[in-house]
C-alpha cells in the first residue's frame, strides 16, 4: 500500500515512472521477490524470506510495478497441471472441477479472475502457454534469455520468464519493463523497450504458415475448428496464410524423447542432493520424473542435446520461408483435478518444441470449445518477439473483447489441498 501511495503521488505530479507505475503484479513462486519466501510449491523449500528480487522482478519494481503476492506452481514447475504437496490443487476459473493447466496455473488464474492485471511466470515446455490456453488469458514465452532469469530460475536451460496478462498490449508493456538490451547471438527485430509501441502495426503482407495438426497430434474436433477460424482471420487482415506440414516439427514429434530425456535429467539433478527425509516429501510425480532421469545414460542425454540443436537449425531455415507459424496451443481440454492423467504425462507436443528451439511463442484466446477457452499459438523465429506480439494483437483486435470467467464460480468436489 505504501508503494501504491508513492505511485499515486507520482501520477498526480505528472511524473510516473512509466505505464506500469502502480500496477499490481503477481509472481510465480519459482521467482524470488524480496521480503517473501520462494517455496517452489515444495515442502522441502526454505520458508526464509528472500533478501533480493530476481532480476526481472527488480526491473518491474524499478518501473513502478508493485509485486503483491506469489502464485501457485506444481513442485519446482515439473508438470503441466498445478497441484503440489505445499498448496494442493489450483482450479480452473471456468470450471473448478478441472485444472487451469501448469505449471504457471496460479498466475493464469490470478489474471483471469482479476486479482491483478499482470503476472510474471515461467515456461520450460509450455508452462505459460498451456494455463493461458485453458484459463482464457494471454501468455507469452519470449525468445530464450530475452528476459533475465538469474541463476536460480534458469537451471534447466529451457525455462524462460515471461508475462501473463488479460490482453496482448499489457503483455507487451510488461515485457518492455523486463528485457535485456540484447540477446547474445540473435538480432532483435525491435529496439529495447519498443514492444508495446510496435504492437499495433498489423499483419498485412506477412507470410504466415498454418499447421492445424502436426504429424501424430490428434487435435479434438471442436478445438481444431475454433483455431482454424482464428487462422482464417489473418487472411482477412491482409496476411498470406498457407497451410503447411512443418517438417522440422514433425521430425521432433517422431523423436518424442528429445524433451522428456532432458526434462527428466534436469529434475534428477535438481533433487539428487536432497536428504532422504526431504525426498519423502516430494510430489510422487516429481519423484517418478527424477527417478527416470537418473536412469538416462550420458550418450542418450547427449543425443537429446544434439537433436535440440538440429531442431533449432531446422526452424531457422523454416523461418526463412515464412514470418510466423500458427498452431493450436493444446490438442485437448484440461483434465480433472487433482492429478495428471497418463495420456498427458509425455512432453506437451505443441508447446515443448518451442523451448527446445528457443523461439518466441504466445497463446491468445480464440474462442470456446463447449464452455472452456481455446488458445491459438503464434510462433516466430528467434528474436522476432515484436512480430509475434504484433500478430497476436492484430488477431485480438479482430476477435473483440474476450469474456472473463464468473468470479463466483462454485468449487465442486475434493479440494485436493495438502494438510
Automatic annotation (TrEMBL):
Gene3D superfamilies listed in its UniProt record: Amidase signature (AS) domain (3.90.1300.10)
PROSITE patterns associated with the record: AMIDASES (PS00571)
Domain Amidase: residue ranges: 4-389
Biased composition (Basic and acidic residues): 1-18
InterPro entries tied to this protein: Amidase, Amidase_CS, Amidase_dom, AS_sf
Region (Disordered): 1-23
Single GO MF annotation: catalytic activity
Family statement drawn from the similarity comment of this UniProt entry: Belongs to the amidase family.
Annotated protein name in UniProt: Amidase
Organism: Paraburkholderia graminis (strain ATCC 700544 / DSM 17151 / LMG 18924 / NCIMB 13744 / C4D1M)
Upper classification of the organism: Bacteria, Pseudomonadati, Pseudomonadota, Betaproteobacteria, Burkholderiales
